[in-house]
Design a protein that fits this description.
- Helix 1 links the parallel strand 3 and strand 4.
- The two termini are about 35 Å apart.
- The model has no long low-confidence stretch (mean pLDDT about 95).
- About 35% of the residues lie in helices and about 15% in strands.
- Helix 1 runs parallel beside helix 11 and helix 4 runs parallel beside helix 5.
- It is globular and about 55 Å long.
- It is built from twelve helices and ten strands.
- It has an eight-stranded parallel sheet, covered by helices on one side.
- The chain is α/β, with parallel strands linked by helices.
Amino acid sequence: MRYRELGRSGMSVSEIGYGTWGIGESASGWVGATEDESVRALHRGIDLGVNFLDTARGYGESERIVGRVVRERPGDEVLVATKVGPRNGMWPAPDGLDPAETFPGAHIRESVETSLRATGLDHFDVLQFHVWSDEWVGRGDWLETIAALKQEGKIRLFGVSVNDHEPGNALALVRSGTVDSVQVIYNIFDQSPADALLPACVEHGVGVIVRVALDEGGLTGRITAGTTFPEGDVRARYFRGDRPAQVEERVAAIVADLGIAPDEIAEYALRFVLSSPAVSTVIPGMRSVRNVERNTALSDGRPLTADQLAVLAEHRWQRNFYS
């Protein structure tokens, strides 16, 4: 496993991190995981050098399971990031909201305390807001609450999870110098963070945590025109209608242009993300030991070539399947 600095923080993170939205039987929006397999997969990831686990208050039993695994590894330095959901429950954050509606100080503190109890940990290495709007820069009492939580040792760093497909909506925050990391969707289809957000993060020393590198499974080669998901699974909505057929066609074009086998697309998707020096870590969701072993093996220092990146630059696909 190779490691990168999380911006200017001095924190060293595994370039393959671990997204834990879908772990456990009660995973929020995901169907099919078991706690036993999730625990085995988390332990295997740590065995293979993963030291960055990303969870959230809104991820079902994820915080509890992550805390259990971390406490079972007292000799390993495992970094845990969690998220505070907006008080008003609105994902993503629309324009025009006051930060007093979304992240008032009392709500932030209550959420952190609840998350600490759920995990059994005494602090979080990164605390992130689960939505963000640049309209909130310089407004509300959230920043002083974050400063107090840092001073109390309950959190080390502060970050935000940028609204889906809105990387430009965190530029003012990054430039303000008040944030340590941003979590953003960045993949072969949505390359827009590279236009302005990633350069701004490099300039201002802000760490970059990449989510949805595999497009919720779209960039694995397993989504075809006939693919369906169980009722209640977030992917049933994400890949509704003719979207699977659209994805299949787009992936086939990428595979053809790169001259690779169809089952190699996931590897190239992760290598695409890691080819950016602005990226600190990528956090694919991993619910099995097999997925952990496959993804961590890509941390081998072999970025894509300039020619391969040029090919992939032609495969931008701006759309929002979350809407």
